[in-house]
Design brief:
Blueprint (H helix, E strand, L loop, with lengths): L1 H9 L3 E7 L5 E6 L1 H4 L3 H13 L8 E5 L2 H13 L3 E7 L2 E3 L11 E9 L3 H12 L3 E10 L10 E6 L4 E2 L5 H4 L20
Parallel strand pairs: 3-4, 3-6, 6-7, 7-8
Antiparallel strand pairs: 1-2, 2-9, 4-5
Helix pairs in contact: 3-4
The protein binds zinc ion (ZN).
Length: 194
């Protein structure tokens, strides 16, 4: 719904311009979800609305992959009224640390801020399953993929698939523009200019 994307724009979490994404592709849009989650009230409201999109089994626990899934996982846990924990990388692989546990048969939702290829969330789905949990779904604020990349049900608050181009095919570059790398200036928000 547009009202959610407006919250992203208001927080400068959704920028329009000419960007070089971390993939190396150029795009007219850039999302930095952390900025919309800066406000606890906004984060709580977005995750409360995200929770209403869920039609699957009620979870016992929410697990978010660090770092992107930490805040969303916590606020989604609040919305569901269940505990929320996070998985973090240890020697390159996701692990459950800090005394957090997965109980056998526990129904789990994996929470993420943005899902593009879904790599991190899929790793955590595998991890939680190996530890005996039963993953009932993956949820995220923004999905940037048409299809569900997971082997379990998937729900998001917004679908936003921006146009992307290889630099040599980018119409903004061909028109003489220069792409900016969002967040490349320390301490400054990404600029939608240039
Ligand atoms: Zn370009």
């Amino acid at each position: 719904m547009g009202s959610h994307l407006q919250a992203f724009r208001d927080a400068e979490a959704l920028l329009e311009g000419h960007f070089q994404l971390s993939s190396g592709l150029h795009s007219t849009q850039y999302i930095q979800c952390a900025r919309v989650l800066m406000s606890p009230a906004v984060a709580e409201g977005l995750c409360r609305d995200l929770r209403t999109r869920w039609t699957g089994e009620t979870p016992d626990l929410i697990v978010g992959p660090a770092l992107g899934g930490v805040v969303v996982g916590y606020e989604l846990a609040r919305a569901f009224g269940v505990p929320g924990i996070f998985a973090e990388r240890e020697n390159g692989k996701f692990a459950i640390r800090r005394g957090f546990t997965i109980n056998p048969g526990q129904k789990i939702i994996v929470a993420e801020d943005v899902v593009t290829t879904g790599g991190s969330a899929a790793e955590v789905v595998d991890l939680v399953t190996r530890l005996g949990g039963r993953v009932v779904g993956v949820m995220c604020l923004v999905q940037r993929t048409e299809r569900n990349p997971f082997s379990v049900p998937f729900a998001s608050l917004e679908t936003l698939i921006p146009p992307t181009w290889a630099p040599a095919q980018c119409p903004l570059c061909l028109a003489g523009g220069t792409a900016v790398k969002p967040g490349s200036r320390p301490g400054a928000p990404a600029s939608p200019t240039a």
